[in-house]
Amino acid sequence: MGTTTPPRTLAEALRARDDESLAGLLRARPDLLSPVPGDITQLATRAGTRASVVRALERLDRFALQAAEALAVAPDPAPYETLLGLLTGDGQDDGEQRDDAGAAIVAALPGAVGTLREQALVWGEDNRLRLVRTARELLSPSPQHPSPTGLGPTVAEATAGMSPGRLQEILAAAGLPATHDPVSAVAALTGLFTDRARMGELLDTAPTEALAVLDRLVWGPPYGEVTPNPTPPVKWLRDRGLLLPVSTRTVVLPREAALHLRAGRAHRTPEPRPPVVAAVAERDPQAVDSAAAGQAFLAVTTVEELLKHWNGGGPAVLRAGGLSVRELRKTAAALDVPEPVAAFWVELAYAAGLLASDGEADERYAPTPASDEWLELPAQERWVSLATAWLTATRTSGLVGGQDAKGRALSALGPDLDRSAAPEVRHRVLALLDALPAGTAPDPESVLARLRWERPLRGAAASGGTTDLRSRIALWTLNESELLGITGRGALAAQTRALLAEGPAKAAGLLAPLLPEPLDHVLLQADLTAVAPGPLERPLADMLGTLADVESKGGATVYRFTPGSVRRALDAGRTAADLHAFLATHSRTPVPQPLSYLIDDVARRHGHLRIGAASSYVRCDDETVLGEILADKRSAGLRLRRIAPTVLAARADPASLLDGLREMGYAPAAESADGDVLITRAGAHRTPPRSAPAPVPEGPPVPDTTLLGAAVRAIRAGDDAATVVKAQPETGPGAPPGALPRTTAAETLVTVQAAAMTGSAVWIGYVNAEGAASQRVIAPVRVEGGYVTAYDHTADEIRTYPLHRITGVAELAE
C-alpha cells in the first residue's frame, strides 16, 4: 500500500497509491475523468457513486465478479483467508470441491483481488479487505434483489426486530442456554450455525423432509412461502431458527446455515479459469485463405452492384428514417440474396460512407461522391476499406426486422440500429479466433461461453430465456465475417490476421495475389448472350452492363442482349458503329449475326420519334407512324392529339410519354428545346459530400497517456492544496480548522513577492468573480500592477490572480 498506517477510507487508500496506479484506475474507469476530479477525495467520492460502480462491475470477468460477490456476503472488513475460504470451501463437502479446482482458485484469486483493487472496488490491506459500500449494496441479498450467490441475510439481519420471547423459544428448541440479552441470543444462534460439529449434530436430528426443504433453498433463492399452518418439516426448521421469518408468509434460510450446508462456499461453481475456445475443424490454412479471398471478392462486387442499382437515385427515405420493407425486398431481389443479407450489405455500404441520403425535398438514398473514388481503387484496397468500416461500426444490421423498446419496427438504415458494444464484441471475437492455430474453425458455443465469462453482467440473459445482446452480436459477427471474407470456412484468414496486427497495407498485400485477375474479353453466343468467364475490367464491365442485362451470376456471368438493353446503350450516346466496334474488340468469338441485326434494327428505329416538352410532344417525319400511334388503343392514356402533320401533342410529361411509347414497342428519343437528341447517361445522381456515420461510443473514451499524466498531476496538486499542512496565520479566535487564510493586503503583497523571489509555493484563499471561495497552492512567478502571475498547482497551469481577490496567504509548513 506504500504506507505503514492502514488506510481508514477509500480516499486514504487512493492517496497512498503511486501515479502509475492512479493512472491505471483512470484508464480502467474513464468515467471518473469527466470532469477531472479536484483532488483525491473527489476522486474517491466519484468512484463510489452508483452509476460508476455499476459500470465498473459490468466490466469485470466472471471470477473477479465472483470474488466481489463473496466479499459482499463476508464480514466487513474480511481477511484474505476468509475470502479464499468462501471461494474454495472448507474442504468438508465429501470431495465435491476437487483439488485441482481449489488450486486454480488459489492461483487466480490474487489477480482477481488485484483487479478489484486497481478499479477501486476493493481497498484495504489483505487482513482488512473492504468492498466499497455501493458495490456491497448492489451485491448484497434482499427479498427484492437476491444475492448473485444465492445467500440470504445473516442471523443478525434476519432477527432484527424479533421479540425476545421468540428468540428464547428458538434457543430452547435448538438446545442452547437461555439468555435475556437479545444480542447474546443472536450471537449464540450464530455460533451454533457456524460450529460445524454442533450444526452437524442438530441436522442429524432433523426429519428427512426437513432436509429436503433445506436442499431446495441452500443454493438459492433462499426465500420460501409458508402457510399459517406450516407442515411439520417446515415447523421443525422454523422452531430451531433454520428458517427465520421475513414476513407473515415468507421465511428465509440464514446465511450462516446456508454456508454450513454449502461446505463454506459462496458459489456452487467458482470459475477461476476462462472457458477454452474449442475447435470444430482443422483446415488447410491455404484453403482457408483462398476461400476467404473468394468471399472477399464477392463482397466487393456485391457492394459495387448495390451502388450500381442505386446509381440513378435509390429508394426513398421513410419519414421516420430508413428503408422500407418493400424497398429492402426489391434490393435483396436485385442482389439475389436473402433480405437479412441485403440489410447487411446496405448497412456496410452506409457505414463505409459509400451510400447516404441526398437531403433533397423528396429525399432518396444514393451513392456518395466517395463511392466514385472507392470504385477506382484496386479490389484488395476496396475490401480493406469495407473490412475496416465493419470493424469500427456501431451500426448493427442484425437488428433489422426486430422491434425497439417501444414496439416499433427497426428498418435498415434507420436511426435506431447503433449498439455501442458492437465494435468491442467484434474485435474480441476476432481476437479469440486469432489466438487459435491457423486454419482452425472454432465452436460458436464455446466462443459465446468465453465472452459470457469475460463480461458476465453484460452477458446475463434477459428474462424469458432470450439471448443477451452481446451473444447475439457475437453470432452475427461470426456470420458476417464469413460473408465479408474475414474468415474462410469458419477460420480466420491470414489477410485478416495482418489487418488486425499490422494494418491495412499489409492485409491488402496478402490479399492481392489471391484475387482473380480482371479479364478484358467475353465470349459472345449465337443466342444473344455473352459469357464473362471471370471478373471483367471496369470499363468493359460498365459498358457491358449498359449494353446487356445480367441473366445469371456465379463462376461465370451471363449477359443477355435485348432490344431494351441496346436502346439503353443508344440513349447513353453510343452509336451502332460504336457498339459493333466494342463487341468486335472484346469478344474472343466472332460477333453472331443475330446480335448485329438486333443492334442495327434498334439503331434504325432509335430516335425516329422525337419527344420534347410542350407539356410534351411527339414529332416524326413519317406521318403514317403518328397515325398508327393515334389509332392504337394503348395510347389513350397519353391523351395525344395531332397539331401538325408530323407533330402530336400530349398532356403527359416527357418521361411518362417516353415510357408509354416504349411499352407500345416504339423506340423514341428525348430531344432538347433546340431539337438535339438528349443523351441519358447511366447513374448521374450523387449525394452532396457525406462523411461516414461516426460510431456511437460506449461510455467515455479511454484516455491516452498524455491526458492520464495531466489528470494525475492535477489531482495530486488539488490534493496537496486540500490536505497539505499549512502554516495557518492568525484568523481570529474561534476560527474553524481549515478556514481560508486571512491576511491584510500589505501582508499578502509582501508574502507573494517573497515567494516569487525564492521560487517557493504558498497557500492562498481566493474568491472569484462569482463569489465562490476556494483555496489553492500557487508558486508566484511575477507580482506587478495589482496582479500575481503564478503556477497553480491545483489546476496545473499558469494563471493570473488579482491581489484584491486573495483573502489571505500562508506559507506551507515543511
Give an overview of the whole structure.
The model is unreliable at 461-466 and 725-738 (pLDDT under 50). The longest helix is centred in the middle third of the chain and has 25 residues, at 285-309. A hairpin with a 7-residue loop joins strand 7 (355-357) and strand 8 (365-367). Strands 18-19-17-16-20 form a 5-stranded mixed beta sheet, with helices on one face. Strands 24-23-22-21-25 form a 5-stranded antiparallel beta sheet. Strands 12-13-15-14 form a 4-stranded antiparallel beta sheet. It has 814 residues and is an alpha+beta fold. The chain contains 33 helices and 25 strands.
Short description:
The chain has 814 residues and is α+β, with helices and mostly antiparallel strands. It has 33 helices and 25 strands.
The helix/strand class is: alpha+beta
Low-confidence stretches: 461-466, 725-738
> How would you sum up the global shape?
elongated
Any idea what the radius of gyration is? 39 Å
**How many strands appear in the DSSP assignment?**
25
Distance between the termini: 24 Å
Please give the order of strands in the largest beta sheet.
18-19-17-16-20
Q: Approximately how much helix is present in the residues?
A: 40-55%
Number of helices: 33
Strand content: 5-15%
Major beta sheet summary: 5 strands, mixed
Compute the average pLDDT: 86
